[in-house]
């Protein structure tokens, strides 16, 4: 009898290890490029892996042009002008603040400075010094500090708290410079998560955002993190927050996709349930997200975020044609969940894209049958 139990335990252990291995490899094995059985994503006009842009989820040519100019000349004024002309309450301003802050943070990591060497991101320091009352520069600086805390320190450590406290003060200063701008408060949502605001403190911060931009998708995604099980909430609280946002979403709002993000944040490390990605909770969330992208404005900058996450779930759910439809819209940019969680976002995205192509063709699809 003891031998039987040992054998059962070994079988169960092997099954768990297999699931972990499948999860890490994208759940389906892939043949090498050039293999006779390999599906070729290039047949669909998709970008090569090395051409994928990891900086942002979707196209923003104005931002790319200004980023290139600022980093090439180290002159902040292009960034200042772009933000000054970007609607304060819109999603794009928040994305551009993140992009400028991320560029400065990456520059500093690549060139930390030393004896006789100018540190990277110097243009942001000059911006703050020469235009201390500029609201855009203040918001970028606050977000820069937040990104520095998460990238260079361990949450809970003294150095992490010091940087986060500095970021909190910078958020307050940015808010004073632009009273109607929700961005400084959205930046502070990450501070709230890092410093562990009480729920009462967090709710007060959230009300300030709702007063300024009640349907801001980026703000809701940032707030969702606080309510997740891995931070200061639970699965139930995160689901409740996401479902409430979806329920009150106005027509054409991407907030209807919030439950899909809540599901993603609480995916089991090991999935022992057959067909999890075809389960009712996942299917319902996917349908909500599909409805959101179909009814949203074509120029909504948050569409790409939703479509990238849809690709992940549609591929896992073996809904190949639907995954291909999303890929046709977003291909070329991979700066979004879930790819950004990988050390190599472009490679991770390319695996899922190849799986979608292979699954699509295995079920009779071809470039000729895919709607354009």
Give a short overview.
The chain contains 16 helices and no strands. It has helices at 2-24, 61-73, 77-84, 91-110, 122-130, 135-152, 158-177, 183-195, 199-212, 217-227, 235-247, 258-265, 280-295, 303-316, 320-330, 345-362. The termini are far apart.
Q: Give the radius of gyration.
A: 22 Å
* Overall pLDDT score: 88
Distance between the termini: 61 Å
Shape: globular
Outline the low-pLDDT stretches.
1-29, 33-37
- How many strand elements? 0
Q: How large a portion of the residues is in β-strands, by DSSP E?
A: under 5%
Helix content: 55-70%
Strand count, sense and barrel status of the largest sheet are: none
Order of helices and strands: HHHHHHHHHHHHHHHH
**DSSP helical segment count:** 16
Oligomer: single chain
Write up what this structure looks like.
The protein is mostly helical and 372 residues long. The chain is 62% helix and 0% strand. It has 16 helices and no strands. It has helices at 2-24, 61-73, 77-84, 91-110, 122-130, 135-152, 158-177, 183-195, 199-212, 217-227, 235-247, 258-265, 280-295, 303-316, 320-330, 345-362. Helix 15 crosses helix 16. The radius of gyration is 22 Å and the shape is globular. The model is unreliable at 1-29 and 33-37 (pLDDT under 50).
């Amino acid at each position: 009898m003891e031998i039987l139990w040992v054998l059962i335990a070994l079988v169960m252990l092997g099954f768990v290890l297999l699931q972990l291995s499948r999860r890490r490899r994208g759940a389906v094995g892939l043949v090498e490029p050039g293999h006779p059985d390999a599906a070729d994503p290039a047949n669909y006009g998709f970008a090569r892996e090395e051409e994928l842009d990891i900086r942002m989820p979707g196209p923003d040519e104005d931002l790319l042009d200004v980023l290139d100019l600022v980093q090439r000349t180290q002159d902040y004024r292009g960034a200042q002008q772009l933000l000054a002309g970007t609607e304060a309450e819109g999603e794009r301003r928040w994305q551009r603040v993140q992009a400028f802050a991320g560029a400065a943070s990456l520059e500093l990591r690549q060139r930390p400075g030393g004896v006789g060497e100018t540190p990277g991101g110097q243009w942001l320091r000059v911006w703050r010094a020469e235009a201390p009352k500029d609201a855009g520069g203040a918001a970028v600086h606050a977000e820069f500090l937040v990104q520095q805390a998460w990238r260079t320190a361990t949450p809970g450590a003294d150095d992490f708290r010091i940087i986060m406290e500095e970021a909190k003060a910078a958020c307050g200063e940015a808010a004073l410079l632009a009273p109607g701008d929700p961005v400084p408060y959205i930046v502070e949502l990450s501070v709230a998560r890092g410093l562990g605001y009480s729920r009462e403190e967090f709710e007060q911060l959230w009300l300030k955002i709702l007063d300024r931009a009640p349907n801001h998708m980026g703000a809701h995604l940032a707030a969702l993190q606080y309510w997740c099980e891995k931070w200061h909430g639970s699965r139930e609280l995160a689901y409740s927050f996401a479902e409430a946002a979806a329920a009150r979403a106005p027509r054409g709002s991407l907030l209807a996709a919030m439950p899909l993000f809540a599901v993603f944040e609480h995916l089991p490390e090991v999935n022992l349930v057959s067909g999890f990605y075809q389960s009712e909770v996942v299917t319902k969330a996917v349908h909500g997200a599909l409805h959101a992208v179909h009814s949203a404005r074509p120029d909504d900058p948050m569409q790409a975020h939703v479509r990238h996450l849809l690709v992940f779930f549609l591929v896992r759910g073996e809904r190949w044609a639907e995954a291909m439809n999303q890929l046709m819209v977003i291909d070329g940019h991979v700066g979004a969940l879930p790819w950004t969680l990988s050390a190599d976002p472009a490679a991770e995205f390319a695996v899922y894209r190849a799986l979608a192509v292979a699954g699509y063709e295995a079920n009779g699809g071809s470039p000729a049958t895919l709607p354009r």
